[in-house]
Every structure is written in structure tokens, then in C-alpha cells.
Amino acid sequence: MKQILTIYVCLLLFPLQIKAYNIQGKIIDQIENQTLTGANVIVRKDSITILKTTQTNENGRFFIKDISEPNISIEISYFGYKGIVNNFYGNSSDINMGYYQPAT
Fold first, then answer.
1. 16, 20, 93, 99 — which has fewest CB within 10 A?
2. Which domain holds residue 62?
3. Would you say the pTM of this structure is higher than 0.90?
């Protein structure tokens, strides 16, 4: 059975206050409307440098604070699903990472 996941990510930017921002999001199975617990979230500066990592909680949510790099990539992976990587540049405020599809 094919499932599609919706990933919502918001970048909260506070450039005038502390030059750091927070990233939060939620990973949801769109068909079954269930959250994915334990999905891996990695924030990278480049292909080698990892800035922060976390996993989604029991509600499918993640929160990463104090990111100071303006240009980052966010990788999300979950067992049995294709990984997704999105790049973000500068001062984005709200970001929808789109759909997350299972591995076939």
C-alpha cells in the first residue's frame, strides 16, 4: 500500500535579535493521518558538515533551535521511505517541504 507523507516545516527567523533561528516541523502520513515517531531530521551546512540532528517525537513533531547559518539543507528519513533533502537560503519564514513518499 502506497502512502504519502506531508511534511510541514517552519523556519522561525529572528535576525534582528540574536542572528539565530529555530526550525520546527511535523511529519504526517497523509493517507492514514498518522504521525511518524522517530523520523530522523538532520540540518547540514554542506554535504559534510552536520549542524544539528534530532528525531520526531510521539506527535511527529521536531524542534531544532539556535541555527545561525543562513544557508542550510534539511534531510528527513524514516525506515521504509525515500529520504528527502531540501535546501533553504537566507531568511525564509514559512516553508512547506511538500510530500514524502515511501520507498518502492
1. 16
2. 5-100
3. no
Cell numbers placing 63: 524542534
Neighbours of 100 (CB within 10 A): 23
CB 76 within 8 A of CB 40: yes
pLDDT tens digit at each of 104 positions of the chain: 445 555 555 554 444 444 678 888 888 776 677 888 999 999 999 989 999 999 999 988 888 888 888 889 999 998 878 788 888 887 555 455 544 555 54
CATH code (residue 94)? 2.60.40.10
DSSP symbol at 26:
E
